[in-house]
């Protein structure tokens, strides 16, 4: 089945946002089993959904990612979970620079870069752009780039080649 780029993007965003919604009851908790109700009354969107939408908005409209993230954080409040304390301070201070985070927030919101990039180099540039405004520690950047790479390869039905060396 051939889909248009806009349909493909819409389906991709549904997948990213549904993943956050389904996983939201376990935000900050570890799941200890593999049987759970996929949609329950405890499901709600989190800050990860808001930031993923903000990144998509920034890339689609050629807006500064930091500006987009700050605007979306002011416009929409998460139903579950919440922003980390340092990230919250950054969101509320428009002049703040990247704060050296090595956390997973960059990887959590990077998926639109993988979907909107035409080539691996384009994906890498987009992933770096939307991550470096906060997660400028090399571990944070590498995590976001690895996540974007995995998504881009899946999107393009690429083969993963693993080596034991």
UniProtKB/TrEMBL annotation:
UniProtKB keywords: Hydrolase, Magnesium, Metal-binding
Pfam families hit by this protein: ADP_ribosyl_GH
Binding site for Mg(2+): 46-48
InterPro entries registered for this protein in UniProt: ADP-ribosylglycohydrolase (IPR050792), Ribosyl_crysJ1 (IPR005502), Ribosyl_crysJ1_sf (IPR036705)
Top-level taxonomic group: Bacteria
GO molecular function: hydrolase activity; metal ion binding
Transmembrane parts of this sequence: none
Cofactor: Mg(2+)
Co-factor binding comment: Binds 2 magnesium ions per subunit.
Protein name: ADP-ribosylglycohydrolase family protein
């Amino acid at each position: 089945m051939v889909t248009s780029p806009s349909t493909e993007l819409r389906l991709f965003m549904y997948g990213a946002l549904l993943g956050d919604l389904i996983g939201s009851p376990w935000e900050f908790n570890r799941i200890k089993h593999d049987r759970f109700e996929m949609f329950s009354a405890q499901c709600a969107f989190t800050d990860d959904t808001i930031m993923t939408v903000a990144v998509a908005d920034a890339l689609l409209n050629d807006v500064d990612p930091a500006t987009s993230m700050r605007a979306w954080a002011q416009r929409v409040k998460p139903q579950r979970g919440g922003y980390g304390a340092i990230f919250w301070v950054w969101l509320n201070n428009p002049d703040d620079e990247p704060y050296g985070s090595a956390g997973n927030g960059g990887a959590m919101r990077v998926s639109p870069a993988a979907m909107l990039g035409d080539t691996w180099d384009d994906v890498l540039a987009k992933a770096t752009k939307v991550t470096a405004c906060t997660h400028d520690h090399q571990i944070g950047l590498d995590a976001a780039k690895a996540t974007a790479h995995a998504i881009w390869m899946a999107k393009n039905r690429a083969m993963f080649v693993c080596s034991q060396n």
